[in-house]
Amino acid sequence: EPTVRTELMEQIPPIAIFLQESRPKFPTAFFEYLMPIVVRYLTDVNNQVRKAGQEALLILLEQDLVAQSDIENKVCPILLDLSAPDSDDEYKVEAVNIICKMASMLSRTTVEHMLLPRFCELCSDGKLFQVRKICAANFGDICNAVGQEATERLLIPKFFELCSDSVWGMRKACAECFMAVSYTTSPEVRRSQLSPLFISLISDTCRWVRQAAFQSLGPFISTFANPSSAGLYIREDGTLSIRPSAQDVNSNSCQPSNNITVMPSSANTA
């Protein structure tokens, strides 16, 4: 029964945490018994079971309970198979979504070598606009996960494609994550490539795209500032914040911190 398998998936994370805390008594139980179930359910015929498996996997990754070897040898190969060009549409959409969500939880080497090539392919998927939309909405997070060199070499060309996509929702998603993409690049790339690209979005024929671009204008401009003098920095959650100067801290020592969030690094489109 799918409901039984779904319920089982929901119990996997707490069981895994218990086994981790009791590892001397159960040193290999999670890797031998539970992890294979999670991997198998990622390809279950029932979509509710798959969704529960995906959520369980993300929790396990967030809690750092999955071994690097299992990520590279079991999880990533399954996701690459599910997101292959000839894969079922529903499986492909789910796979690209989970790839984007787990990228920030994996090592940069794993993301760049195992997942980035497939992500770049999916950005150009001509069959499913839903796949391209997921890629566009999470583009800033992927840039942050792989760093400047891979972003400029592999991702910026794909970002240009998405910013000129025929579907306006793609262009809107790109406008919303523009600051996060810009922050990952060098000042020269921001000036010579991203600035003209942003102008094209702010002049887009669709008013929803223009509105999203105008909302991202301030955060995009802030990426040109010198952090040491402007006090702007990116927090761990990907938001742009302002760090008060030492003088402000001393004069307001009894006041709450005035760090403010300006805008999230990326946002899902409506």
Mean pLDDT: 84
Main sheet strand line-up: 1-2
Secondary-structure element sequence?
HHHHHHHHHHHHHHEEH
Assign a percent range to the helix content: 55-70%
How far do the termini sit from each other? 34 Å
Structural class of the secondary structure composition? mainly alpha
> What's the number of helices?
15
The proportion of residues in beta strands is: under 5%
Largest sheet: 2 strands, antiparallel
Question: Could you list the spans in which at least 5 consecutive residues all have pLDDT below 50?
Answer: 245-270
Keywords: Repeat
Protein name: PP4R1 phosphatase
Organism: Alaudala cheleensis
HEAT repeats: 115-154
Summarize the structure.
The protein is mainly α and about 270 residues long.
Question: Descriptors for this entry?
Answer:
270 residues, mainly alpha, two-stranded antiparallel ribbon, 15 helices, 2 strands, disordered C terminus
